[in-house]
Amino acid sequence: MNHITIVSNITVKDSYIEEMKRELTKLVEPSQFDEGCKRYELYQNSDNPSHFKIIETWINIESWEEHMSHNHITDFLISTSGMFEKFHTNQLNLIA
């Protein structure tokens, strides 16, 4: 199985929590329709509202890389510039 899962952990400055939530929410639907997307889910930490997590599953790394070049992603990165405290992405491979 070549599927990959991407987990992004995003922490934003407190003054940007609601704005970031809106911007992240805008990513969900177009991303779910990107070719090769099996799963694209957005979460907000119940105990720390400045922490968001995106969990994505793609049929292969190439489909994720293509997704990352789409306008909805580049527009997001431009519109949210300066809002991040931390932004860390991990690529996971299913082993069992």
Note the total helix count: 3
Strand content: 35-45%
For this structure, the quaternary state is single chain
Structural class: alpha+beta
The rounded distance between the terminal residues' Cα atoms is 11 Å
| Count of distinct structural domains | 1
Order of helices and strands: EHEEHHE
- Give the overall silhouette: globular
Reading off the top of the CATH hierarchy, the class is best stated as Alpha Beta
How many beta-strand runs?
4
Low-confidence stretches: none
Average pLDDT score:
95
What is the second-level CATH architecture?
A: 2-Layer Sandwich
Radius of gyration: 13 Å
Describe this structure as you would to a colleague:
The structure is a single chain. This protein is of the alpha+beta class. The protein has one domain: Alpha-Beta Plaits, CATH 3.30.70.100. The chain has 3 helices and 4 strands. The protein has helices at 17-32, 61-68, 71-79; strands at residues 4-12, 37-44, 51-58, 84-93. It has a 4-stranded antiparallel sheet with strand order 2-3-1-4. A hairpin with a 6-residue loop joins strand 2 and strand 3 (51-58). Helix 1 (17-32) runs antiparallel to helix 3. The longest helix has 16 residues, at 17-32. 11% of the residues are buried.
Task: List key phrases describing it.
four-stranded antiparallel sheet; Alpha-Beta Plaits; 3 helices; globular; 96 residues; single chain; alpha+beta
In short:
The chain has 96 residues and is of the alpha+beta class.
Strand and helix map with partners:
Blueprint: E1 4-12, H1 17-32, E2 37-44, E3 51-58, H2 61-68, H3 71-79, E4 84-93
Antiparallel strand pairs: 1-3, 1-4, 2-3
Helix pairs in contact: 1-3
